[in-house]
Design a protein that fits this description.
40% helix; alpha/beta; 314 residues
Length: 314
């Protein structure tokens, strides 16, 4: 008999210390209030969250932005987009390039917003690198930022990707690294070349990512932003889960299958810290994780009564 899949719970983030004992202290340490608010909203159930959001729907357009290689993952962000439309939001998924440069994707999303009939308020939901593209766009486009009601970032990296550094630059290869890993790196590098995604991937490495992040880091945003970050023990997507490789590069360090936990923390932003969410799950769901409910719960915090008040802080 197949083992039943348990529904995911947002409680238990601190267990990463048991599972990954070599994880360094999170610096800066995110304030626990926003995680507590997320857990409370989750406990109250999806009907509570839907009621909270439905009051905002008629005046709000939600733009969902996929991350690097996101369009190659069937169903990416489809569930939350469908759920938000059912509540009455004007919700749509941006047509950013899965392997392109951030600058090109920002230009594409900007054109889409300006060419569509949107509602009075704009809200952005970005997964992984897609979240950074949202921030980059809002930092550059004052007229769009003036209409922004809030941003939800999910697994958006502040630090570079050691996985892509391994694949594209041959880094993080200790003498003990087996030949099999080197062969896999070569095959994955060839695949990224075939997908014309090498340039976009290289931006996520330490060659370019710190300078890109510096362009939005520490800005005084006039709207609420919430980042969700997590760790996981189980890979859930073949294209986006690299547990074994991350374990080889930095043994005993918590990660979400793509980025180390400490590299998902943005100084100065509020965070919701969650357990057992693999990097791809917010985009794809699965394994008992309801991605639509996850995004709606985070969005309800951003669009809730605290938005714009002194309570909205890191």
């Amino acid at each position: 008999m197949a083992k039943a899949i348990r529904s995911w719970s947002p409680e238990g983030f601190e267990r990463y210390r048991e599972c990954y004992p070599r994880t360094p202290a999170l610096d800066p340490r995110p304030h626990p209030d926003w995680t507590a608010r997320f857990i409370e909203a989750w406990r109250r159930g999806i009907s509570f969250v839907e009621h909270s959001l439905r009051r905002q729907a008629a005046t709000t357009t939600v733009i969902l932005v996929r991350g690097y290689l996101g369009s190659y993952m069937p169903g990416n962000l489809v569930a939350p987009c469908t759920a938000l439309r059912a509540l009455g939001f004007d919700a749509w998924i941006a047509d950013n390039s899965p392997g392109g440069l951030v600058s090109g994707n920002v230009a594409v999303i900007t054109r889409q917003i300006r060419s569509r009939q949107t509602r009075e308020r704009l809200t952005f939901c970005g997964h992984s690198r897609g979240g950074f593209e949202c921030l980059s766009l809002l930092a550059q486009e004052a007229s769009i930022a003036a209409r922004c009601a809030g941003v939800v970032l999910s697994q958006t990296p502040h630090g570079p990707s050691p996985v892509l550094e391994s694949i594209l630059e041959g880094r993080h290869r200790e003498p003990s690294v087996k030949l099999r890993r080197r062969v896999v790196d070569s095959l994955e590098r060839a695949a990224l070349n075939l997908l014309r995604a090498r340039a976009g991937g290289r931006e996520l490495t330490s060659v370019a990512w710190p300078s890109l992040v510096a362009g939005v880091d520490g800005l005084d945003w006039p709207f609420p932003i919430l980042q969700t970050a997590s760790w996981s023990e189980r890979p859930t997507a073949w294209l986006d889960s690299f547990h074994e490789r991350l374990g080889e590069i930095r043994p005993g360090r918590a990660h979400d299958g793509q980025f180390y936990l400490e590299d998902l923390i943005w100084p100065g932003l509020p965070h919701v810290l969650l357990p057992q969410v693999d990097h791809a799950q917010p985009a794809l769901g699965g394994y008992g994780f309801d991605s639509a409910r996850y995004w709606m719960t985070a969005l309800s915090l951003v669009l809730g009564r605290d938005a714009g008040s002194q309570a909205w802080s890191a």
